[in-house]
Every structure is written in C-alpha cells, then in structure tokens.
Task: structure prediction
Amino acid sequence: MSSLPDLTEAGSRRDRFEALYEANYHRVLGYARRRVGREDAADVVAETFLVAWRRLDEVPPGDSARLWLYGTARRVLANNQRGKRRRERVTERMRTNVRRSLDADGVGGELHAAAAALARLRPEERELLALVAWEGLDAGEIAQVIGCSRNAARIRIHRARRRFADELARGGGSMKRNSVGGHVSEAYE
Amino acid sequence: MSKNGNPIDALIAGLAVVRDEELKEELQTSGAALLATILVCPVEASQRTRAPRRRRRALAVAAGLALAAVLSLPALSIVRSIAGLGSGADDLTPVPTSSEIVVVSGRAGVPWKIVAVKSDHGLCWGLQVKDPSEGWTQGLGCDYLDLRGDLPPDVRGNPSRPCLTSPTEVVPCASLSRHWVDFPGDTTNFSGYDALNRIIVLGVVARGVAAVELVLTNGKTVPANLVERPHGLPLSFYWAVLPPSDGYRRTSDVVEVTKMALARDAAGRVLERRVPAWNGNPTGDPEGAPPPS
Result:
C-alpha cells in the first residue's frame, strides 16, 4: 500500500493533482486494464482523472485517495459498459486473456475453470472478488470504494467467494470443493 | 494483488492480465500526455452542473445502483465466527449478548426465517434461508440502528460507526437523525437467496409504529406484516412476501422492488415515509434526490 502525501495540505492545486496522478496512474490503469480492453481502459483512466481534477477538493487525503479513484473508475466503467452486450465482451476478454495466460505458462485447466466460474458470477460479485484479488483491497477498503459499511463489504465478499467456490465445483474445477468450500465455510462451523 | 493467503483470492489473482507494476513505465509516455491534457481542462465549480444531463444521469445510475445493492438488505455480518471472511484478524466480530430470536418464519420454495440476536455491535438481524444442500444460511446484519426511541447499546449499535451523508462524506452514525422506519430491504440482487421462489421484503420500525405499507416500483402498494417487539425487543419487524416478477423496475443488473416504506401510527397517521437509499440520497429521505432511472 502506497503512502501518499496529505493532499489537503499540499501546495497548489496543480501540485496536488500531479502528486495524486503520479502515485496512482498505474493503479487506475491497471484497474481498468484488468476489466476492459486497452482502448476502453484508456478512456476509463482519462475520465477518472478528469473527474479527480475537477473535484480535487473532494479527493480524500493519504491512501484513501487511491480508494476514491477506484470508486470513481468503477463508476466510469459501469457507465461505459452497461448492458448485456458489453458484459459478454468482458467475459469474452476474460476468456481470451486466460487462454493467452494458459498458453504462456501452461498452467492448464485450473485457471480455465476459475475463469469460467468467475464469468458465471454476477457482475457485482465478480467485481468484489476482483477488488480483493486484483487490487489487493481488504473489506474496509472495499467498503470505501463501493460506498457501504465494512460489515456489508465483508459479508458480500464472503458470499461472492462462496458462490465462486460453488461455481468452480459445478464446473469441475481442479480445486476440490471441499478445500475451497471448507475454507470459506469456516464461519458456519 | 491479494496477499491474504485465501486460495480463492490467489486463484482469481492468477487471472489478472496485467499487474500494476508492469504499467509504471507507461507513466512516462501515455501517462504524461494525459496529465498534460487534463491540466489544461477548465475546473470552474459549475463544471459539474453543466455536464450533459444524459451523462450526469448515467453516472448517477452507476452510483445509485452500487449503493442500492448494498443497502437492499441490512448490512450483513457473521455473528458466530468471522474466520474465513476477511483477510485476517478482525476487531469487528460481533459477540452475541442474547440467544437467537426467530422473529417469523415461512416457506417460499424453501424454508426461511427472520432472525435477530443482540450483540456488542448492536442488533444483528436478517433473513436466513435453508438451502437444500447446505442448510441454513448464517448471515446477519449488525449495523448501527437509526430508529427512534431508547435502544440499549446491544440493539442500537456503535454510535461512532461511519455513515454516509454523501457519496464521499462519512460521519458518525449517531450524528444523523433518527427514524420511525428503516429502509426496506429485499432478497433480490443478492446471492444466497436463489432458492427462494418469492421475493421477501423486510425491515425494522421503532416502537409506536402500528402499520407499514410498501409502495412498490410496479405502482402497487401492499401492507406489510408487522411483528411487534418480538421476545421483548424494543423495536418491531415488518415483512412481506411478493411474487418473483410483477413488473418491478429493473435497471441493468439490479431489480428494484420497493419504492418506499410508509409507517403509520395506531390512528392511521403517517409517521414517516422512507425511500431506499442511494449515493445521492444516503439517508433515504423521500424529499431527497430520487433514485436514478
């Protein structure tokens, strides 16, 4: 987790924005790239930082700025990819990417099954798991990104993991259901 | 990328097409160009209000849907043990201070029940369903309760808990006004309730509320069932079972069932109307900004 300067105490507006941008550009770009194609990702990044530039006074200080940007990027992305057609594109991209990944490292069926299981989840569940696994956020940080309580975020993550495990098992994933399900089911025992 | 050791997270992390670190070099090329472009964009305060109406609405929809999904049920938590839910030790694990109360139960394809238990984080409550293969679900919500009346700490919850007042502003929940009726929540848009063949709407109300009506997004108004102060709890629960599809408003991936909850006293007077919250109206004020459509 990076440590940003306290933007509320930084110098000029321009300096503040540049500090914000330099510290987070690759993170926001990574966030977008992991979800949409390169061209769409560029649009998402540009629009996200344009919102930040115009609403710089609302960007929280410190590391929370990163979460604010994720939240903004998430909304920009949602705005840009509404509808079934786009979701199918995302899913297809995910499959393509996984296929490419498999070709590259020969990992094989496990990732294939995982990608298929992930694609079968609801978009909001998929995004929660991605925020954890791809952005490395914990429940408290995700709560800030999506605008809910930490408890709500935690249980939604839990449910999403459980659904993922179910889908993985249903699709014949190479991770046995007991090992995955058992882990996420500890809360029930 | 996630480093919490959860095997699911590790597996999903492996699906990422690119890591942030791999993109740092682009800061010197496309990133620098973008920065230069943005820095010459106007930033006057009225910029946002002058944004195209369609775009403002679309952004509002995105924000609204995000929070609507979050707030459709009481924020959920696990009462007994939180191991396996997060990324390690958690200081927010609620500790029950009472036995479990079954407020009401029924069957909608599968058995369901509304359950409540007092805890050091306030009242934990919610809907549990009996999955045919996995048994009863266990999630309960333990958020701060903003209902009127004197509620003990193990019902009210933590007054310093953060509450949204705008999409970006958080204040202690206790600083917000109190209400007669809680947001109506329902079982749509959540996994875990797939086995139900009906939609169940539920919520809590303060003492003094004698009736609750639900104004649905399909234009209908239905009376909710009321369970008054079950097992001596200082609040009441309302609930209704609705058809799974009855012309409810659907926006993208989200089904919106309830438009408003209306609380009446014993004389039939309206005590309060409350609408589902969204980012632009986090307190569910019926006079506040309506959810985007």
Summary: Confidence is low (pLDDT under 50) at residues 45-92 of chain B. The CA atoms of residues 170 and 221 of chain B lie 33 Å apart. Chain B is about 15% helix and 30% strand. The longest helix of chain B spans residues 53-71.
